[in-house]
Amino acid sequence: MSAPSGVLARFSLNGKTAVVTGGARGLGLEMMRALAECGASVACVDLLAEMGAQACVDIEQQYKVKATSWACDVTSYEEVQTLFEQIAQQHGSIDILVTAAGIVKNVKAEEHSPQDFARIMNVNVNGTFFCCQAAAKEMMKQASGGSLILIGSMSAHIVNKPQPQCSYNASKAAVIHLAKSLACEWAPHKIRVNTVSPGYMATDLTKQVIADRGAEGAAMKAAWEENTPMARMGLPHELQGAIVYLASEASSFVTGSDLVVDGGYLAW
């Protein structure tokens, strides 16, 4: 295969369309902004439709790329399939998918309700698969390949402390192995599938959770930082480089891999 000349050129996403689930806020928004900055048109898929629409307005103004917002429940197979067809029609293609939509619940395993456990699995695993499947179908129609980036977590590799979250941990472990399975199946179609596994990130939502818990939240944050060699939480923009790398031709021989961005947490 031919490659763009020069290292920096291989990071360009000009002419590509990237779909980001959970892109209306937090880490998903940071990822979407990074893809737009590198030249990709972006489609934000999020239940927070108004927030997603405003994010797209801001991205269009700042990066001069096409940005569209789509309301969707990723756990609905039919809704996802229809939506991705519509995105492909409006943008002309789907070349990149980032699955940042996900939920977590901190509850002791013996007290975990079956409804909550099923909901977390449904959003984090089923929703991820439905979006991957829909994006891959469009990529196969285009016959030009593409890059699927599933958002995993260091929680797929370790058990977090002090907060109990067995359902989230199990769901993210499933996401990472799902990515490896899809990478092997879809490699003949020139579709690469990888995961990015963040550590503790200082998003607005995380900061609010810590603040709402008062002394308990402060102790939890202190424990997270103590167990991270870099002794701090990550900043949302520190995931941007990993996303652009995996989305672009700079990672053209990378598939079935998990890129951990955790400040060294897994090293201890």
From TrEMBL:
This is Uncharacterized protein. One of its GO terms (biological process) is carbohydrate metabolic process. It holds the Pfam family adh_short_C2. Belongs to the short-chain dehydrogenases/reductases (SDR) family. It comes from Umbelopsis ramanniana AG. It comes from the Eukaryota. InterPro entries: NAD(P)-bd_dom_sf, Sc_DH/Rdtase_CS, SDR_fam. One of its GO terms (molecular function) is oxidoreductase activity, acting on NAD(P)H, oxygen as acceptor. Keywords: NADP, Oxidoreductase. Gene3D superfamilies: NAD(P)-binding Rossmann-like Domain (3.40.50.720).
